[in-house]
Automatic annotation (TrEMBL):
Organism ancestry: Eukaryota, environmental samples
Species per Swiss-Prot/TrEMBL record: uncultured symbiotic protist of Cryptocercus punctulatus
Keywords: Carbohydrate metabolism, Cellulose degradation, Glycosidase, Hydrolase, Polysaccharide degradation, Signal
Family note: Belongs to the glycosyl hydrolase 7 (cellulase C) family.
EC number: 3.2.1.91
Name of the featured protein: cellulose 1,4-beta-cellobiosidase (non-reducing end)
GO BP field: cellulose catabolic process
Length: 448
């Protein structure tokens, strides 16, 4: 075993203490309405959750790096390997046919795991790349077991198909071991970016015993199809001024802590459509028009200017299917915003103005920038997480919490501003789960 690990040296490699067996997940690709074919896919756990070690000695333990194995980025990458995952036993992840279930708190043999993030694979070593323009993406979700403060998320990010292997010779693990993550928040908590350990200036997070932040962030365009719990939901495009993954440093990361949120290369706020925030408080939730106590099918359509794949993205539409009927998305009911029910550049501009928000979406390129990234393709991400920054209040409560009572755009859900603290959610709702199933992809109006 030790010899096998040493042979893989001079790169971020793979270890085999735990066999890496990707859970199977089927989905359906439609050619036209009523004409679909089953795709035999797999899922893979993100590298950040994996045991990272050198011949059994931890490279990363708790929320700190080993000073002996990881004194600098290159040495760390050369020393360390990513191990396989016990998906159900360690991470609370299971699949059955076309269904994926993510558990929240999982007590494994060696540690307690909180949440997870997985990607859809095309084959053992490649992510499935979805080209969304002039297409629709449909899935069914059960959020009934997600309380305030949790987020069962399904979204797309501009990761590399192979996890970054072809661009970064130091990365030998690749998509097979869930490498290459990025998003529009330019996360600094990624342990490896472009295969290189993010050890420089690493600071453990004070309120998260498993996470820290390094000097670099991992930025890329992000399309949030579904961020939700049983109380609230939103869908949100975020654009960046670069295509694909960019390892950021300094101002280009747009770090909020450094008061540079709008100076970076990505639009961190995005342009969200949250029915509650946009004036319809009876649309989504337990017992509401879209009843979150039951599974619901979510349809998202990426409409182009000419109705062809060659057109520019012009609109993102949303429909729901529940109880055998199609439910159109709620209409905006806010002064100063046209009473539509979809996301467009016009909607985004009106919303930002009405709410007094910084229109970084427009500054970073809006639909034109997103359209360009959709041509290149994006990777499907499915996750369950709690929020150590602001307790998920931006999704399901009143945020910012110091806003004037009733200020437009601040009421995003009915959860209390005291809710969502990770320590509370983890202790009070450890058995929370989200289930995603019946993923479908095809031409507009073909999958429901």
């Amino acid at each position: 075993m030790i010899l096998a690990l040493l042979v893989l040296g001079k790169s971020l490699g793979i270890a085999t203490n735990q066999a890496e067996t990707h859970p199977k997940l089927t989905w359906t690709r439609y050619q036209s309405k009523g004409s679909g074919s089953t795709v035999n896919g797999e899922i893979v756990l993100d590298s950040n959750w994996r045991w990272t070690h050198h011949s059994g000695t931890n490279c990363y333990d708790g929320n700190t790096w080993s000073t002996s194995l990881c004194p600098d980025p290159t040495t760390c990458s050369n020393n360390c390997d990513l191990d396989g995952a016990d998906y159900p036993g360690t991470y609370g992840i299971s699949t059955s046919g076309n269904s994926l279930k993510l558990g929240f708190v999982t007590h494994g043999s060696y540690s307690t795991n909180i949440g997870s993030r997985v990607y859809l694979l095309k084959d053992t070593k490649s992510y499935e790349m979805f080209k969304l323009k002039n297409k629709e993406f449909t899935f069914t979700v059960d959020d009934s077991k997600l309380p305030c403060g949790l987020n069962g998320a399904l979204y797309f990010v501009a990761m590399d198909e192979d996890g970054g292997v072809s661009k970064n010779s130091i990365n030998k693990a690749g998509a097979q071991y869930g490498t290459g993550y990025c998003d529009a928040q330019c996360p600094h908590d990624m342990k490896f970016i472009n295969g290189e350990a993010n050890v420089l200036d690493w600071k453990p997070q004070s309120n998260d015993e498993n996470s820290g932040n390094g000097r670099y962030g991992a930025c890329c365009t992000e399309m949030d199809i579904w961020e939700a719990n049983s109380m609230a939901t939103a869908y949100t495009p975020h654009v960046c001024t670069v295509t694909g993954l960019r390892r950021c440093e300094g101002t280009e990361c747009g770090d909020t802590d450094n008061d540079q949120r709008y100076n970076g290369i990505c639009d961190k706020d995005g342009c969200d459509f949250n029915s509650y925030r946009l004036g319809d408080k009876s649309f989504f939730g337990v017992g509401k028009t879209v009843d979150s106590s039951k599974p619901v099918t979510v349809v998202t359509q990426f409409v182009t200017s000419n109705g062809q794949d060659s057109g520019t993205l012009s609109e993102i539409r949303r429909k729901y299917v529940q109880g055998g009927k199609v439910i159109e998305n709620s209409k905006v009911n806010v002064a100063g915003i046209t009473a539509g029910n979809s996301v467009t550049d016009t909607f985004c501009n009106e919303q930002k103005k009405a709410f007094g928000d910084n229109n970084d979406f427009e500054k970073k390129g809006g639909f034109g920038a997103l359209s360009k990234q959709l041509v290149a393709g994006m990777v499907l991400v499915l996750s369950l997480w709690d929020d150590h920054s602001v307790n998920m209040l931006w999704l399901d409560s009143t945020y910012p919490t110091n806003a004037a009572a009733g200020a437009l755009g601040t009421e995003r859900g009915a959860c209390a501003t005291s809710s969502g603290k990770p320590s509370d959610v983890e202790s009070q709702s450890p058995d929370a789960t989200v289930t995603f199933s019946d993923i479908k992809f095809g031409p507009i109006d073909s999958t429901y």
